[in-house]
């Protein structure tokens, strides 16, 4: 269970100073190489083997994900953006204008522009684990919103860290787009929502994107496109381990596998070994059998009632939910009732 302290921190982020664009400050709470090494070695030592999905998002991986969001099979991003465009003013009325807006997993910041225009917050705090991608996105936003104070924070939001905001937390609202909540096991998702509830306080609000349950074909096409961009995105995890942890994975001996696990209500992504092989990671040896898989991501899909039940366990009550006409995706406004 994650720390539920409102500060979300054990160590303050290190300020990196202003960026090239006016109004941008950068704060570094990025995990250390030792943290990465320990998590990777523990995951590869487990049965079945697994790696955390945060490894997707180095600079190249973030660029690949941006390409994924433009694929015809990947409905999530364009559908969520359409919902935000259609209902942004109503969302802003509920969240409250002129506040501090925190965004978890800001990525390329395409979705936030509509919300920022409607909310007109005093301070925007985008949080993302990909440092250079975050920097570029923050500076692009600063050019579009020249009077907005942007405190870009490079951090892994799945673990405790300190926000670079001064004073009390009154007037803070949170935005968690992209159905990234689905990448967490249900108990971990509840723990993260509990931490967000403690952060924004009783009466505070969270706007969160949630992918909805649907037919197997639509889901599996979204995570295994015909052009192979998603496969390259998955395999880039091994490239990153080769570069950062001195691993010796041969990418030609692995293949991307993605499928919908209907019993668990999630799309699973794996890297499958095509032959028996021995690899070294950070000096440690590992053996993979032919056909053995490394589990790299889950993407849980919810129905609206099921997500509301999950959020209720974290102290939230639903205020409003918006969906697209095909009911592919949903955006929820949740209010903290207890924390």
Automatic annotation (TrEMBL):
<dbReference type="InterPro" id="IPR051128">
    <property type="entry name" value="EgtD_Methyltrsf_superfamily"/>
</dbReference>
<dbReference type="InterPro" id="IPR035094">
    <property type="entry name" value="EgtD"/>
</dbReference>
<protein>
    <submittedName>
        <fullName>L-histidine N(Alpha)-methyltransferase</fullName>
        <ecNumber>2.1.1.44</ecNumber>
    </submittedName>
</protein>
<keyword id="KW-0808">Transferase</keyword>
<dbReference type="Pfam" id="PF10017">
    <property type="entry name" value="Methyltransf_33"/>
</dbReference>
<dbReference type="InterPro" id="IPR019257">
    <property type="entry name" value="MeTrfase_dom"/>
</dbReference>
<keyword id="KW-0489">Methyltransferase</keyword>
<dbReference type="GO" id="GO:0052706">
    <property type="term" value="F:L-histidine N(alpha)-methyltransferase activity"/>
</dbReference>
<dbReference type="GO" id="GO:0032259">
    <property type="term" value="P:methylation"/>
</dbReference>
<dbReference type="InterPro" id="IPR017804">
    <property type="entry name" value="MeTrfase_EgtD-like"/>
</dbReference>
<dbReference type="InterPro" id="IPR029063">
    <property type="entry name" value="SAM-dependent_MTases_sf"/>
</dbReference>
<feature type="domain" description="Histidine-specific methyltransferase SAM-dependent">
    <location>
        <begin position="37"/>
        <end position="335"/>
    </location>
</feature>
